Amino acid sequence: MTRTPSSAPATNRRTRGLMVVGLIVVIAVITAVLGHQVPKSSSSSSLSPPSAVLPSDARHGEHSGALGEADGIVPDGVTVFDDTIPAVAKLDPELLKALRRAASAAAHDGVTFYVNSGWRSKAYQNQLLRQAVAKYGSENEAARWVATAATSPHVTGDAVDLGRSDATAWLSRHGAEYGLCQIYRNETWHYELRISAIARGCPRMYADPTEDPRMQQ
């Protein structure tokens, strides 16, 4: 009878010891599993950043980051005679013809008509508009410089932006003879074809595109 009470506490101690050992093993396993998962999570997040931190043009438009000459981007040194460049080749045929006739005449004065921009895809025009909004701080201010893809004459091939001040200075004096007119006072480089200008001179310029009725669509 004296042995029964003494064996019960020993049994309890062994049971508690086994439970403690088991708990330590479980904690060790969980710690090891979590240790392997943490690096994987951080690695995947670095490869796939959340959309909130992606650049603006990566969140808008399927062509973002892939625009090139096919969209109307013009490399340096392009002239109105470069048929291999889409920005030139896709201009309205009558506008291009007038530009080349004027450029041939200007060449006698040592002036070359370099093209900064001509025809543009809608994707390129949209990108330029987003950049203008970021630069000028609002859509209203950006509209003084860049039109939407729905209203821009560049998208239809009806406008050209010429580089070099000597070319635009030459056109300011002689452009009307070829039907080539500066349309906006704030854009000395932007020219469009106005056939009536050959006989009557270029029409009055708008202060900027926001005054152009075509931009109100």
End-to-end gap: 105 Å
Name the helicity range.
Answer: 40-55%
In order across it, which strands form the biggest sheet? 1-2-4-3
Run of helices and strands: HHHHEHHEHEEH
The Cα radius of gyration reads 35 Å
**Biggest sheet: strands, sense, closure?**
4 strands, antiparallel
Mean pLDDT: 80
Q: SS-based structural class? A: alpha+beta
Low-confidence stretches: 1-15, 33-63
**Number of distinct beta strands:** 4
| Number of helical regions | 8
Q: What shape does the CA trace take? A: globular
Q: Strand content of the residues, in percent?
A: 5-15%
Compact summary:
This protein has 217 residues and is of the alpha+beta class.
What does this entry look like structurally?
The chain is 47% helix and 7% strand. With 217 residues, the chain is α+β, with helices and mostly antiparallel strands. It has a four-stranded antiparallel sheet with strand order 1-2-4-3. The chain has helices at residues 3-47, 56-59, 86-89, 93-107, 122-136, 139-142, 165-174, 197-200; strands at 114-117, 160-163, 180-182, 190-193. Mean pLDDT is 80; it is low at 1-15 and 33-63.
List keywords for this structure.
single chain; 217 residues; alpha+beta; four-stranded antiparallel β-sheet; disordered N terminus
Strand and helix map with partners:
Blueprint: H1 3-47, H2 56-59, H3 86-89, H4 93-107, E1 114-117, H5 122-136, H6 139-142, E2 160-163, H7 165-174, E3 180-182, E4 190-193, H8 197-200
Antiparallel strand pairs: 1-2, 2-4, 3-4
